[in-house]
Amino acid sequence: FDPQKGKVMIGGTDIRDIDKKELMNTVSFVFQNSRLIKASILENVKLGKPNASNEDVMKALKTAQCTDIIEKFPDGVDTVIGSKGVYLSGGEAQRIAIARAILKDSPIVILDEATAFADPDNEVKVQAAIRELSNGKTVIMIAHRLSTVANADKIFVLSDGKLAEEGKFDELRE
Asked: Which CATH class is domain 9-143?
């Protein structure tokens, strides 16, 4: 999508001048309703980096707080999601999607309401996974709850599509 006004720049380069494949490798997305394909947990995570080793996938799953998900199924990472009654909660699916983004290891991460469908227990785990994913990266996090972005370096508050406030969590909370 082209911006309605201005430019979107990465490292001083207009994104319209960046090869689409290169741009997609530069950015990881985790949406509020991240979809998982009807495939194994391993294959779902490998979508982030198809040539990754199983060891790297396991590290990404651990970093994304997914150990409990894997351990509850007899087939572990080989469990096929969406078949034979194997379904994940919204928060569990989010953690698998975050594991995919961790494995991809892009320098830019866009999180759109990444905790929206998480129950309280899963939200804590999703937040921990997001902290790991965000380490050393540029992160754009879209959230309705200010507490979700409490650790952000800078927060922009939009109202009716316009910038209403900006600052750190403690400044905006006042």
From this structure: alpha beta
